[in-house]
Amino acid sequence: MYAKRFIQLFIIFLITVFVAMYCVKVIGVEGYFYQSLILTVIGYIILIVPLTALTIMKQKKKFGLSTNTNKQHAFQSALEKLENIVIVSTLSNDGMMTSSILTFKQSKQQENVWYVVTDKKSKRVQNIHDTKKVSLTTWFDKETGIRISSNNIMPTVLENDALKDEIVKHSEIKELADNFNNKVIIRLDIQSVLVESFRTNPTVISFQD
Predict the structure, then answer these.
(1) Dihedral (C-alpha) 142, 146, 152, 157: value to the nearest 10 degrees?
(2) Which of 61, 97, 134, 190 makes a 20 to 30 Å CA pair with 86?
């Protein structure tokens, strides 16, 4: 439980006790049983209203999406807390999903461009050729729960001369493989992402603005 919620509950508890005691005194109820009954009923009524309101507010925050002026900063900050591991899912013509855990490299020029290297005969490569449908999600940070996911991606399979040209332009790709024989580069141009964590509202970040 976070300190803020603990303080809120403690204040509500104090208010409930004092108001319930005051009501019993004003009403003039005597006898332990009747005083306890009145305290319980009044305390419950006073306590349940703010707790219900806090729960509703929490749910709205949990499921509400937000954008902000520092959204690119939020995206990069999330990446800095994550390992360069991503689950890439592709869709075949017959509707079958293929998912794989891969390492990725972010472009040094465009933060929304990621690269993965894979075998040219892999199912994911064939799926991209067929449907161009790709989604991804990163691993999550154990402490904060931060993770990045997207199903709004433009994938490109780079091979042969196109692969060589991309490596020349983006030497950071070399960190993904010792050699590129029988391999291709999958370039993932991310159009928008969802950044989530345990501590903040989910944030939609668009790179199409």
Answers:
(1) -50
(2) 61
Query: How many helices and strands, by DSSP H and E, does the chain display?
Result: 5, 8
Dump pLDDT digits (tens) for 72-123: 578 888 888 899 999 999 999 999 999 999 999 999 999 999 999 999 999 9
Cα–Cα distance measured from residue 142 to residue 137, given in angstroms and rounded to the nearest whole number: 15
Strands (E), the chain: 85-91, 97-103, 105-106, 113-119, 134-138, 147-158, 183-196, 203-206
Q: Tell me the C-alpha to C-alpha distance, in Å, between residue 125 and each of 38, 64, 159, 183.
A: 70, 35, 11, 10
Residue type, 149: S
**Tokens read off for 81:** 């807390």
Question: What 3-state DSSP class applies to 149?
Answer: strand
- Residue in the structure block whose two tokens are 């993965």: 116
Whether the full predicted model's pTM is greater than 0.85, yes or no, is: no
Q: Is the pLDDT of residue 61 over 90?
A: no
Beta-bridged to residue 102, according to DSSP, are: 86
Spatial separation of the C-alpha atoms in residues 104 and 46, rounded to whole Å: 53
Rounded-to-10 torsion of CA 12, 17, 18, 21:
150
Q: How far apart are CA 117 and CA 158, in angstroms?
A: 10
SS3 4: helix
